[in-house]
Each structure stands twice: as C-alpha cells, then as structure tokens.
Amino acid sequence: MAAAEETITSAVRPRARARARAVYRALVEATFELIQQRKQRAHLTSYTYFTVLDVLPVATNLGTATCERAIDDLRSCGLISTRRVYQPAEFLDQTTGEVITRSTCIGVWLTVLLKAVAPGLRARVMQEELPTEAPRDLAADRKRGHTGYALKVQHQEEQALQAEEALSPEVRESVSPRGGNVKVNPLLQWSLPRTTPESLVTPDSLTSATQPAEVVWALGAILSEHPQRRRDLIEQAGQRLACLFRDRHSARAYYRLLWCAVDAEFRGIPAFFSLQNAMQRVLIAMQEIPVRSPGALLLHELGDQGCGWLAASGWHDRARHVA
C-alpha cells in the first residue's frame, strides 16, 4: 500500500486523492478476500477477476459519480486495469412496447496492482489469460434479481432502515428483513461460487400450516425472501389462511391483509403479534358459533385491538374488501 500511496500522491490531484484511496482500498480488500476464498498464493504482484463496478457505492459508501471518477484516476495511474465484457440482452422498448435485443456490458475483468516490484509497473488485463466462457449470465441474474442495481437498492433500503432505527426512541424486537444472510463483499458476488441458501419458507411449509402461529412464522421468514418471490409466497399464505377459515372465496382479501402486515413490519410497525392473536380468536369463535364471514370477523378483531398498521394500510371500508 505504501507504493500505491506514492502513486496516488504523485499522479492524482489533491482534491481527488481521498476518493481514489477509498476505492483502491475497497478493491484491494476484495482482491485479497477472493484470493483467500480460492486458497491461492497471497504473494502476488497483481490479480485479475471478474466483477461489476456498479456496486462500488455499496462497498465504499460513496456516490456513483464519485466512484466512476476514482476508477478513472486509478486506471490512469496504472493501479488498476479493466476490460469490459458484453453480452446480448433483451429489453422492453418504452415507446413501442416491443422486445429488443442489444449488446450490454455485464461487468469487467479487473486487474488490481497489489505490489509494485519495479518502477513504472502498471496493472494490465491479459486477454490471452481470460477464460473463453462468459463469466456471467445476465438474463438469469435479472430473473433472480441478482444485479448491480438490485444490490444498490437493497443497500439504500438498509441504510434508510438503520437511520430510522437510530432516530426511533422505541426499542423493539422484530424479524430482520434480511434475516440471517451471510454478508458477502458486493464486488465478489459474481466471482465466488454461487451458494444459494435454502429458503426458510417453502410451499410445503405454507400448505401444511394448521395454526395461525405457523402462518405468522411463514410471514416472518418471507421477510428475508427476494421481493420477486415474496409476492408469490404471501399469496400462498393467503390461500392457506382461507383454507384454515374455510373461506376460499375470500383468498384475495386474506392475501391483501397479509401483504399489509408484512409491509407494516418492513416499516417498523409491529403487526404479526396482533394478527396472530386475531386469527386465533377467529378460529375459536368458529368452533363455538357459526361464522358466516371469518374474514369480516378477523378485521373486526383487528379493529378492536386498535391496530394502527391496519388503518394506515387504507382498509377504511372493511366490509367492502371481505365479502
């Protein structure tokens, strides 16, 4: 790092040195982490791997434009070298609505200079040493929501949530929206072998739920799912709740109610505990007396509890939503 500091000091203008140091430090840390994960030699002059530089704001907490300028400075002074990789991808034309195919940059091969063993040594991506197969399947990543843009949005949501928790005087125990995921360096998302953790909630766990507590547990696990899958799972939970209440024609209303509860938990408003209690009381009432509309009774129970999350969700005319 001493040689890199000298290079940055001599080649980068003073006002841009701080951002160049921050970005270079993030790249070096990711490089050594990748070397360690791959169990390779740590005493290397330079190292090349595939990454997506769009996630640099996540790794450095700097702005996108700031990271782009720092990359240009580091490339100019020879501390890094990049080579873009292109792949055809399908997009929807906003004007005509037609699907068009165009060449898209899916990432870069990045070479980071780790040790200056000779004066004037510069990082260089060796084209002949790169693998021939594509380092990334952009179409599959877009379906999974595994893109640089998705990572940046997730990072912004986490920062906003942390800011809200820091300003909130109330300390409460709740399910973390990112529940239990191992933190991986965002720059290495496409370099390390993909290990997809087994989902906490499955269709079997939803269809086999026999108690309100099991449905609420499934909702808590759904919080850690990707948004593209979360909607389907909440819909399955709503269908299961309709089966428990023997009220299948109101499955859509139960889905909307569960969605409001999940959304409230994301905004830091406790909803699962009151929802579970209300569902339990409805099941008890169904065993004691004939209940024509379990959904309406459920909303009535929630209203009696004074659930602020239900009122904030826009369920003003409760009889209109559950018929």
Secondary structure: elements and pairs:
Elements: H1 2-11, H2 17-37, E1 46-51, H3 56-60, H4 64-76, E2 80-92, E3 99-113, H5 138-144, H6 148-167, H7 203-207, H8 212-222, H9 227-244, H10 251-266, H11 272-288, H12 294-304, H13 308-312, H14 318-321
Antiparallel strand pairs: 1-3, 2-3
Outline of the structure:
The protein is mainly α. The chain has 14 helices and three strands.
Give an account of the 3D structure.
This protein is mainly alpha-helical and 323 residues long. It folds into two domains: 2-151, no CATH class; 198-321, no CATH class. Helices cover 50% and strands 11% of the residues. A three-stranded antiparallel β-sheet has the order 1-3-2, covered by helices on one side. Helix 2 crosses helix 4 and helix 9 packs across helix 10 (251-266). The longest helix is centred in the first third of the chain and has 21 residues, at 17-37.
Cα end-to-end separation: 68 Å
Look at the helices and sheets and give the structural class.
Answer: mainly alpha
Low-confidence stretches: 170-183, 196-201, 316-323
Q: Please give the order of strands in the largest beta sheet.
A: 1-3-2
SSE string: HHEHHEEHHHHHHHHHH
Average the pLDDT over all residues and give the rounded result: 77
Binned strand content: 5-15%
Give the biggest sheet: 3 strands, antiparallel
Shape descriptor reads elongated
> How many distinct beta strands?
3
**Which percent bin holds the helix content?**
40-55%
Q: How many structural domains does the protein architecture include?
A: 2
Number of helices: 14
